[in-house]
Design a protein that fits this description.
Radius of gyration: 44 Å
Number of helices: 10
Largest sheet: 5 strands, antiparallel
Strand content: 15-25%
Distance between the termini: 56 Å
Number of strands: 17
Length: 438
């Protein structure tokens, strides 16, 4: 800015700066509104994300799978069971007859890792005994044979180990990677002669259990769909001859956890909405204070507790306290579910008017990408911010012109003052030069 302070001693530049500070008050207010609106948009975007997540969670809670809470338990630690949603409540006894075993060959003759263990040729033959024969090329040593058998690229279906039996002396142990009677194999020299003096086999074995006099077998220790919807798995610690009692019964623990998680999410959102819309009369003012849309959303979310027929959910364990917080009585919920699963399922959301369905509807209608209440509010505020920024930019031009005008005015004033000072000095000198008379 050009200086408007001259020999007159009149500080026009300082006066212009002070006047410009007054001129910028309107622009400063606009800039403050922009920041306020941007904070509100950030809060609404976070709210929109949470509502979309709540809609998804409420929808999942309302699905039928959440309410199919039959669980399978076993009386024997070594025997476990699982049940699907289609399982009927039942109980039965399972006697462990045999565990599944892999086929295993323990070769007789020990050798050093670097010893040549193949006869002549460096190729050995792996016969899967199912008509599949695989010839493996090695370097002929015990270590090379172990490497070739374990190489994933060879896909042998077996794993090999060199078991140390004395200093520098190892015996070859090979077993199938799968279990069951069909996992047997043979490992020989290429010409069919025994390798390393032959091997002592441990035959592969299918697992077997007995239910009510009926025997069932499996190549693995898992019996899938042993009964409709029920699978049984034997651990390696299971003792043959032991009997497990398997019970498939309704369990409210999974259901209670799912409902509690949804209620906790709704409570957390209600609390945050209260903070965001706080008027500031008894604390900090919320970033969305005065936003009627957000207050209406808070009301709709709280009203989702109540069924459309005007009844209460207290009988199934869900109430609201005097502070507006949802309270879930897990014991009452479990008891109600045990007494009437269908009624509780309908109340909480497996039907079209359950609690979860009502929450999902409120959250979804507010957060929909097109036409959602919160989405529309975000768009509206963003449009308002754009207009405010345009006004701020216009103020920049207006202030620049105003500063230029003031600078010219005070420059002219400074010039006039300098001229008047010069005239005053001349008159003083003339008066001083006049003769004096006594």
């Amino acid at each position: 800015m050009a200086s408007v302070s001259g020999l007159s001693g009149f500080d026009g530049a300082s006066i212009v700066d002070q006047l410009m500070q007054l001129e910028t008050v309107g622009q400063t207010r606009l800039q403050s509104r922009v920041k306020t609106e941007q904070s509100a948009v950030t809060a609404l975007q976070a709210l929109n994300t949470r509502l979309a997540g709540l809609a998804t969670k409420a929808g999942d809670t309302g699905k039928g799978d959440t309410w199919s809470t039959l669980a399978a338990t076993s009386s024997l630690p070594g025997v476990s069971a699982s049940a699907t949603a289609s399982t009927a409540a039942t109980s039965f006894s399972v006697t462990v007859d045999k565990l599944a075993l892999s086929h295993q060959l323990a070769f007789t003759t020990p050798a050093a890792l670097t010893d040549q263990v193949t006869d002549g040729a460096t190729t050995v033959r792996l016969d899967k005994l199912d008509g599949t024969v695989q010839d493996l090329t090695t370097d002929g040593t015990l270590a090379g044979l172990v490497t070739a058998l374990n190489d994933p690229a060879n896909a042998t279906g077996v794993r090999a180990s060199a078991v140390r039996v004395a200093d520098g002396s190892y015996r070859l142990l090979v077993e199938s990677t799968s279990t069951g009677q069909a996992s047997d194999f043979a490992l020989t020299n290429l010409d069919g002669s025994p390798l390393l003096g032959g091997a002592a086999p441990r035959a592969g074995q299918d697992a077997q259990v007995t239910i009510g006099g009926i025997q069932a077998t499996s190549a693995t220790n898992t019996f899938s769909e042993l009964l409709p919807g029920v699978s049984v798995t034997l651990a390696t610690s299971a003792t043959p001859g032991s009997t497990a009692e398997i019970t498939v019964a309704r369990s409210a623990s999974t259901l209670t956890a799912s409902v509690k998680s949804l209620v906790d999410d709704v409570n957390a959102l209600l609390k945050d909405l209260d903070s965001a819309t706080a008027s500031g009369a008894s604390g900090a003012k919320g970033v969305l204070a005065g936003d009627s849309m957000v207050r209406s959303l808070r009301t709709a979310l709280a009203q989702a507790l109540y069924p459309g027929d005007g009844s209460s959910m207290a009988a199934v364990g869900l109430q609201v306290d005097r502070y507006g917080k949802l309270v879930l009585d897990e014991t009452a919920l479990a008891k109600a579910y045990e007494a009437d699963p269908a009624k509780v399922a309908a109340a909480f959301g497996s039907g079209g008017d359950g609690f979860a369905a009502r929450v999902a509807q409120v959250a979804k209608s507010a957060s929909e990408p097109y036409g959602g209440a919160v989405t529309s509010a975000i768009q509206g505020r963003n449009d308002g911010i754009k207009r405010l920024n345009d006004s701020v930019a216009q103020w920049d031009l207006r202030l620049e012109m105003r500063r230029s005008t003031l600078t010219r005015q005070f420059s002219a004033l400074e010039t006039a003052l300098n001229s008047m000072n010069s005239q005053s000095s001349w008159l003083s000198s003339q008066i001083d030069s006049l003769p004096t008379y006594s």
